[in-house]
What we know:
The structure holds two protein chains of two kinds.
Chain A lengths: L24 E6 L9 H10 L6 E6 L6 H5 L4 E8 L6 E5 L15 H11 L6 E8 L11 H18 L1
Parallel strand pairs in A: 1-2, 1-3, 3-5
Antiparallel strand pairs in A: 4-5
Chain B lengths: L14 E7 L6 E8 L5 E9 L4 H5 L7 H4 L8 H15 L7 H33 L10 H7 L1 H22 L8 E2 L2 E2 L5 H31 L1 H6 L6 E6 L11 E5 L5 E6 L8 E4 L8 E4 L3 H4 L2 E2 L2 H7 L6 H12 L11 H21 L18 E8 L2 E9 L5 E7 L1 H4 L1 H16 L6 H14 L15 E6 L5 E7 L3
Parallel strand pairs in B: 6-11
Antiparallel strand pairs in B: 1-2, 1-15, 2-3, 4-5, 6-7, 7-8, 9-10, 12-13, 13-14, 15-16
Amino acid sequence: MGGEREVTAPPPRRGRGWGEGEGACLVIGIGNPSRGDDALGPLCIERLAALNLPGVELLTDFQLQVEYALDLAGRREVVFVDAAESGPEPYDFRVATPCEGLAHTSHALAPEAVLAACARIGVTPPEAAYVLAIRGQAFELGEGLSEAAARNLEAALDLLRAKLG
Amino acid sequence: MAHDLETAQNPEALKRVVIEPLSRVEGHGKVTLLLDEHDRVQQARLHIVEFRGFEKFIQGRPYWEVPVMVQRLCGICPVSHHLAAAKAMDQVVGAHRLTPTAEKLRRLMHYGQILQSHALHFFHLASPDLLFGFDSDVARRNIVGVAAEYPEVARQGVLLRKFGQEVIRVTAGKRVHGTSAVPGGVNKNLSREERDHLLQDAYQVIAWSRDAVALARRLFEQNLVQYERFGSFPAHTLGLVRADGAMDLYHGGLRARDRDGRTLFDHVDTDRYWDHILEEVKSWSYMKFPYFRDMGPEDGWYRVGPLTRVTQCDFIPTPLADHARREFLAYDEGRAAGATLATHWARMIEMLHAAETIKDLLHDDDLLGDDLMVRGERQARGVGVLEAPRGTLIHHYRVDENDLVERCNLIVSTTHNNQAMNEAIRRVAHEYLDGRQLTEGLLNHIEVAVRAFDPCLSCATHALGKMPLKVELLDASGAVVDARLSGGG
C-alpha cells in the first residue's frame, strides 16, 4: 500500500507561518450567488480580487466544510465573509474563536467549527481569525442583491480595504 | 405499528414537541411529536422542505447552462446534480454513448464525490453518536470529543474528504462547482501530471477506507442488540444496478425489491422511471412521497441509499469492497443488513468501493484521451439518473425548439427516503420516548435516526443564523415549557 506519507497535506510553510507574498492572509467568501443576498460573500471576494492585494489569498464556496481547516493552517490572519440574516447593519465584524457542537446535518459548518477542526487534524491554527457578517435582507432563489445589501457590501469592502490593503 | 403514528386521533388535546431549525426559507426540516398527558407518543412526523422553487428557477434557461446551474442546489453534493443534469442533456443533444474518455472522467468525478461525501458524513456527523453513545454527555458528543479520544480517526476523516475533493477539483476543472461535464461529454481530459498527482495518494486512501469499514463494523458489533433494532423497519428498496447486476453508482437500470427481498422489477430503463414511480402529496409536508405505482401510495413506499445499494446488488466490482459486502450480508445471519444503523457500515463499504474505483480509473490511459464529445439527433426530452451519496437521483427535463428548458422535474434521494425516514423516527419515538420524561439525550435518539439517512435539509443556502437546530417543548396550550438550540452559524 501507500506507506506512511501524508495525503493531500497542507501546503508548505515558511517558518511559523506564510510568507508575506504567498497568502499570509486568507479571505473566504461564503454563499450561494443564486440566492439573493446570500451572494454577499462571493461578491465581496470578486471585488477584492480586482484589487490584487499583495499577500492576500481569496477563496469562495457555497458552504464551509471541514477540510477548509487545511486552508487555514499557519495563516497570520483569516477572515470569513458571509451574509447574515440578522444582526447589526451594515455588518458585524468580530473575532472568531474555535467552537463546535454536534450538527443535525453534514451540509455546512460555522467558521468557529472550522477553526475547531484545526486542532483535530493537527494543523497550526491561524494567529487571528475574524467573521465579517454582512447583513442581508432577502434570500430567495433567483433573486439579485437587495439595495440594502448592496450598500452594506460597500461598507464591508471599505473595512476590508483598510484592514488588508 | 409505526405507520399508526402518522396521524393522531385528537391532536388538539395533545402536548407538542418540535425539533426544528430556525430557517424560514427552503431546505429546512423539523420533527414534531404529539404526546398525551402520560407522555405517550401519539404522532411523530418529519417535515422537510426542499427544493421549493428550484424547478421554476431552471425553467426558461438554455439547456447547456443547466449542468452548471444545478450545482447551486447543494453545497455537499453539487457534483451529483452536475452529472445527473449532464446525463439528461446528453440525451437532449442525441449523445447516447459517450466517448471512453468522457465516460471515465465523469465516473472518476462521481466516485470522488461519493468518497468525500461518505467520509464527511461518517467521520464528522455520525461518529460522535457512534463512538460515545446516543445519550452520552452532550458536551462530549461532538467531533472535538472524537478528536480528543480518537485523534487518528478524526484526522483520517478530514484527509479522506480532502482527497475526494481533490479528485473533483482535478476532474471538474475547479475546486468549487466545476464546468467539465457538458451535454455530449466533457470539456477537458486529465493530464499525466494530474493523474500522477492523484495516484500518489490513492493507495493510502484505500488503506484508510478499509480501516473505516473495520471501525464501522466494530461499532456495530459493540452495540449489536441496540443497533439491530434502533429505528429499523422492513422496507421495499430501489436502486441502480449494472446490466450484470453489479453495483454501479454512475449508470444502470432500476432494480426494486419488496420487503422480503423478492424482485419487483429489474434493469428498468431509467428513461421510463415514471412507469414505476409516482409521487404522492400529503397535506402536512411540502416534500412529496414517492411510491411504486403498482403497489399504491399506502404500501408502495421504499428506501434508497447505501444500505439498499449494498444489499441489493449482486456483487461489487472491486475486490476489497466486495469482500466487505459479503461479510456484511452474512453478519448475524443477515440481520445487520436490515438495520437502519447498519447504513453507516454500508456507507463505509461504498467508500472503500469508491477508493478502489478511483485507483482503477487512474490506471486507465483513456483518461488522457482527446476524444471528448459526441453529438447526435436533437431530442426534446432528457432523463439523467445516477446514485448520489444518499441514494437515487433523478433529473428530468423537457427542452423547447429554442433550446430553453420548458419543464423540469427532480426527484432527489431525500425525497425517495421521505416515508422511510418517517418510519424510522416513529420506531424510535415509540421505543425510546414513549411514556418517558423527555431529555436532551432521548431527543437526540430522534436525530440519530435522521442522521443515518443524512437528509438534504439545507442544501441551497446557509447564511449565518439560518441553520441552527431548535428543539422546543410546548404544553397542550402551545406555551413553550423548555427550549434548546444546537448547531448553526
